[in-house]
C-alpha cells in the first residue's frame, strides 16, 4: 500500500487565482491516473496507479493500483468510465492493449479484456465518441485501430496501417517507428508521428465507418532529416499545430487548417550553449493558451518553457526547469493551470505555474511512483 503523500507548496497562494463569488469554475479535484514501466525489482512499479489530486492546494493522496505489464501509455474516455493502456512488451516480443472499467470515486480499475498488437506499442488515444482507440506501434512501425464495444471492451483491430521506409540515422531510423497518434480538435483528422521516417502522417477520420481512416490530401509532411517526430499538440483555437522532435529536441510550429499543416517555425528546446545529449519527449499547452512546455531527457533532464505569440502562433523560448537529474517523460498540466506534473524515472515532480510569466517552481514533495511514463487527469466532480 502506498503512503498518502501531501504536496507542500513553496509559495502556493502566489499562483492560485482568486475566483469571484458566484463565478462559474471548472473541476478542481481530479484522479491522477499513472502509467508506468514495470519490472522484477521490488522497488519498481507494478502497473497503473491512481492518486487523488487537489488542484487548488496542490495536494495528492493515494487511491488505488492495478498490476499490469508495462502500461507505458494510457488514455481515459471522456466520461471517465474506462481506461485503456498499452502493454509495451509481452514475453513473445510483441505487445498488447488492455481495457479497464474505472471507478472515479475510488480509483479502482477492473480489467475487462486484452488484445494483442502487431508490434510493441508506445502510445494510445481514444476518440470523443468512444468508438475507437488508436495504438501506435513503435516496434513494428504501424498504426492500429481497435473498436470499442458497448461494455467498454476492445474488439480485435479492424485496421492496420503499415509504414515503409527508413530515415537518415542508421542507429535510430533503420525502419519505421510510429510513436503517437493524436486527433485534431474537431476529430476529423488523425495526426500520426513516425520517428523512424521523419514524417507526420494525416488521415481523415470517420468514427462510424470501417475502416475509419483514409489518407488525407496531402497525406503527410516531413520534418528535418534525423529529427524524429514524437508527440503533437494543438493551440486552443485549433489554428496552430506543434510537434516535438525527439532526436534533435526541436519543436516545429505549423499553421493548421482542415487537415493541412504548413510549417512556419522550427525552434530549439535548448539554448545554443547546450552541450550534451537530447531526448525530447512530450509537449503541452497551458489552459489559457499562453505557454507551451516540452520535456527533454538525455543529459538535459528539464522542462523547456515557451511563450506563444497569440497572433502568429510562433514560440519564444523562456527558459528551462530542471527535474533534478531524473528523466522527464510525459507530463500533465492540470485544467486549472496551477500545476504541472511530470513523470520521471524515480518520482512524479509537481511544479507550480506562474500564470503571468510561465515560470515553474518545484514543490518540496513529490508523488512516490517510480518509472512514471504517462499521466492523465480525470475530473472527479
From TrEMBL:
The keyword Ribosomal protein does not apply. Keywords: Carbohydrate metabolism, Glucose metabolism, Signal. InterPro entries: Cycloisomerase_2, Haem_d1_sf, Lactonase_7-beta_prop, WD40/YVTN_repeat-like_dom_sf. It comes from the Bacteria. It holds the Pfam family Lactonase. PANTHER family: 6-PHOSPHOGLUCONOLACTONASE, 6-PHOSPHOGLUCONOLACTONASE-RELATED. Belongs to the cycloisomerase 2 family. This is Lactonase family protein. It comes from Mucilaginibacter ximonensis.
Amino acid at each position: 500500500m502506498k503512503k498518502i503523500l501531501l504536496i507542500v507548496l513553496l509559495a502556493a497562494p502566489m499562483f492560485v487565482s482568486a475566483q469571484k463569488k458566484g463565478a462559474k469554475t471548472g473541476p478542481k479535484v481530479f484522479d491522477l491516473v499513472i502509467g508506468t514501466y514495470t519490472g522484477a525489482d521490488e522497488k519498481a512499479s507494478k502497473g497503473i496507479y491512481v492518486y487523488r489530486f487537489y488542484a487548488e492546494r496542490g495536494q495528492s493522496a493515494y487511491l488505488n493500483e492495478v498490476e499490469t505489464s508495462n502500461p507505458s501509455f494510457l488514455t481515459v474516455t471522456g466520461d471517465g468510465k474506462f481506461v485503456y493502456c498499452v502493454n509495451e512488451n509481452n514475453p513473445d516480443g510483441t505487445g498488447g492493449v488492455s481495457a479497464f472499467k474505472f471507478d472515479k470515486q475510488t480509483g479502482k480499475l477492473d480489467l475487462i479484456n486484452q488484445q494483442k498488437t502487431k508490434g510493441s506499442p508506445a502510445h494510445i488515444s481514444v476518440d470523443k465518441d468512444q468508438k475507437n482507440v488508436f495504438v501506435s506501434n513503435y516496434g513494428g512501425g504501424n498504426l492500429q485501430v481497435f473498436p470499442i464495444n458497448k461494455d467498454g471492451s476492445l474488439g480485435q483491430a479492424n485496421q492496420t496501417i503499415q509504414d515503409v521506409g527508413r530515415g537518415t540515422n542508421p542507429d535510430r531510423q533503420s525502419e519505421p517507428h510510429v510513436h503517437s497518434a493524436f486527433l485534431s480538435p474537431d476529430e476529423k483528422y488523425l495526426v500520426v508521428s513516425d520517428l523512424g521516417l521523419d514524417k507526420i502522417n494525416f488521415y481523415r477520420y470517420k468514427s462510424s465507418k470501417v475502416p475509419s481512416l483514409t489518407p488525407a490530401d496531402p497525406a503527410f509532411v516531413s520534418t528535418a532529416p534525423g529529427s524524429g517526430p514524437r508527440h503533437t499538440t494543438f493551440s486552443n483555437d485549433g489554428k496552430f499545430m506543434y510537434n516535438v522532435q525527439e532526436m534533435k529536441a526541436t519543436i516545429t510550429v505549423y499553421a493548421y487548417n482542415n487537415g493541412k499543416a504548413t510549417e512556419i517555425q522550427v525552434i530549439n528546446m535548448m539554448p545554443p550553449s547546450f552541450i550534451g545529449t537530447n531526448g525530447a519527449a512530450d509537449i503541452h499547452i497551458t489552459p489559457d493558451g499562453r505557454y507551451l512546455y516540452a520535456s527533454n531527457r538525455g543529459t538535459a533532464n528539464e522542462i523547456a518553457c515557451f511563450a506563444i505569440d497569440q497572433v502568429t502562433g510562433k514560440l519564444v523560448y523562456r527558459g528551462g526547469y530542471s527535474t533534478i537529474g531524473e528523466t522527464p517523460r510525459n507530463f500533465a498540466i492540470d485544467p486549472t493551470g496551477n500545476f504541472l506534473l511530470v513523470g520521471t524515472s524515480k518520482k512524479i515532480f509537481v511544479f507550480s505555474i506562474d500564470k503571468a510569466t510561465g515560470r515553474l517552481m518545484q514543490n518540496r514533495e513529490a508523488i512516490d511512483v517510480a518509472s512514471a511514463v504517462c499521466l492523465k487527469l480525470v475530473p472527479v466532480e
